[in-house]
Amino acid sequence: MAEHYTPQKTKVRVTYGTPRNRLSYTTLLQSEPRTTIWPAITPQNASPKASKQTTDSDEAEPNEPQAKKRLVQAFLPFSTKQQTSLRPKKHSTTSSKRPTKTQAFLDFGQKPIVPEPCNECGMAYQRGREEDEQLHKQYHRKWQHSQLRVLKWDIEKSSQLSKTASYPCTAQSVMSRILMVDPHLSKRETACALAILNHVNEQLGACPLALPDLSSKQRKIFMYISPNSRVEGCVLAELISSAYRVVPDKEPLCRSDHAEPAVCGISRIWVAQHARQRGIATQMLKAVQQMFVYGCCIKPEQIAFTQPTAAGRSLAERFFKRKDFLVYAED
User: Fold this and answer.
1) What's the distance, CA 276 to chain centroid?
2) Count of Cβ atoms closer than 10 Å to residue 154 Cβ
3) CB neighbour class for 15 (10 Å; exposed up to 12, middle 13-18, buried from 19)
4) What is the Cα–Cα distance from 126 to 115, expressed in whole angstroms?
5) How many Cα atoms occupy the beta-carbon half-sphere of 325 within 13 Å?
6) 222-231 burial string, b = 16+ CB within 10 Å, else e?
7) How many CA atoms lie within 13 A of 153 on its CB side?
8) Burial code of 25-46, b = ≥16 C-beta within 10 A, e = fewer?
């Protein structure tokens, strides 16, 4: 007589995941006779007679990894994708503590990496550095816009300007001209010349001027106009009464205590970066000699500079052909 087998229920614990993030699930399994394909889950308290009733198919028992895989697929209540979402998330703190990267350069004995000025706009920046390249690009674009907008002389010469304030240039730039603008000309020409002068003051680091500042000291603006009607040079000259000699071969620049008579003072002198080394500054100084005082040519000994830079000092020594040229203090 066959012995009746009563199924029992037991708890089986299934572990899934890596050793660090291990999830366990507990499920109730109903024990069955040994005809099942998972012999490992047969209860230990099952009847010995029932456990001996094995078939030929039970002899080829599956290996342990396959049985474990089938067990997980059969009794897990949710999919692997859901299990992955239930894993505890790590709060990464490496992003806040990530070290900042800096640009490095290899030293093979080459020329030192130092900021170099741009040949056009004059801004000094370090080539190859992304931040400096971006700043230079923005400044260069702004500089080009100002050159096109401000340094454009599109005013036709009036009859008075063409007769009294035009100075012919050398044969190398026969199409260029030097114009003199003073407060006695029309308001439009004076306003345009004053805007150009203030643009020059910004590049030289000088204070901007207003229209009353031109007439109070009898100041006059000289501009070098290129053939394409661009202002490539500018000089601000004013009337003075005395000046002092420079003490030669002494740094920093020092002057003597003895005052000498003078007529014209060069307050500002500027040449565009792309137009330098072409004698434009010398031509403008010659124009000042001829046109500052109407009907009279000023001698070089009657012209003085104010606060000359190193480049201005070199220009004065070449123009006056002496190192003890005249200087004065601007009010």
Assistant:
1) 26
2) 6
3) exposed
4) 4
5) 24
6) bbbbbeeebb
7) 27
8) eeeebebbeeeeebeeebeeeb
Rounded to 10 degrees, the C-alpha dihedral 49/52/53/58 comes to 160
Q: Match 């003597």 to its residue by tokens.
A: 256
Residue entry with tokens 């500079």: 305
Structure tokens at 127: 């080539």
Angle at 244 between CA 209 and CA 307, to 5 degrees: 40
CA dist., res. 250 & res. 260, Å (int): 20
Q: Which residues of 288-306 are buried (b: 16+ CB within 10 A; e: fewer)?
A: bbebbeeeeebeeebbbbb
Kindly report the pTM of this predicted structure: 0.59
If you average pLDDT over residues 47-59, what whole number do you get? Answer: 46
Contact 306, 243 (CB under 8 A): no
The structure tokens 């400044």 sit at 139
Per residue in 155-181, pLDDT (tens digit) is 654 434 443 356 666 544 557 888 888
Confidence at residue 324, expressed as pLDDT on a 0 to 100 scale: 92
Calculate helix-pair angle for 310-320, 280-291, nearest 10 degrees. 60
Q: Tokens 């009847």 correspond to what residue?
A: 47
Specify burial of residue 48 (Cβ count, 10 A radius: 0-12, 13-18, 19+). Answer: exposed
Starting at the earlier edge strand, list the strands of the sheet with 242-246.
166-168, 177-181, 220-225, 231-239, 264-271, 303-305, 326-327, 242-246, 255-261
Can you tell me whether residue 1 is helix, strand or coil? Answer: coil
In sequence order, what are the beta bridge partners of 24?
Answer: 15
At residue 287 the predicted structure's pLDDT band, cuts being 50, 70 and 90, is very high
3-state secondary structure of 223: strand
320 and 300 Cβ atoms separated by less than 8 Å: yes
